[in-house]
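Fold this sequence, please.
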Amino acid sequence: MILAGNVFEWCRFKDFFLPYSTLPAFSTHEKCLLLLRYDEAVESHGKFHIAVSGGSLPKFMKGLSKRQDIDWTKWWVYFCDERYVSSDDPDSNYGALKQVLLDDISIPESQILKINSAVSVEEAAKQYEKEMKERLPSMELDLSLCGMGPDGHTCSLFPGHPLLKEDSVDIAPISDSPKLPPKRITMTYRLLRKCQQVVFVVTGESKVPMVVSSLHESPENRPPAGRVRPDSGKLFWFLDSKAAAGLPDRGPTPSLI
């Protein structure tokens, strides 16, 4: 996999590359990282299993709907976390992605895994994991797209919360989220560690302290986002100039093979 020199500049931090990107390198550039991973997955096993976070992240995927080089029938979509609400609720992560992308593409509805808000949040988490395993027995996602909040949370893994130590399930319920709405389901570190590729997309100066902490602190002192490390997959962080303001100067552009 080679990312061209005009796509982004980079810094090297220990075990992964940190791209400084004008965000088209993530989702809309001719050789963007997302579509490189899509091509690899389809060539390898005929499908592309992708998980998407909520918040501001879906808007960075909007440009994909205009591309002519994507076979949307190969996409299987999951959510890194989801609010315990109906699909048409304004807080729904599915609803946010539907508005900016899903309504404009031809992906089969059956290939989008949504939360069942008609059962308890605990049962919803169990159902989500069960249905995900039926679609993807290995639970090894081709790509997980994650964001990070100003407090350093990712998915619905919040600082100091007991779920940070959850290692018995891949999908867990949460009923006391410090961010509204309080009830959600979320991927755990156990599932994130299985991913073939994890990509963080982080923007804005409010994220600077947590970006620096995620990349420079010792593992036990990192915020939740900074603790995500795939066991054998790749990890990327895409930052705008404001979010990257606290990091060292940029280095030369790499070729990622």
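The beta strands are 8-13, 16-21, 48-52, 75-79, 81-83, 143-146, 171-174, 184-187, 197-202, 234-239. The longest strand covers residues 8-13.
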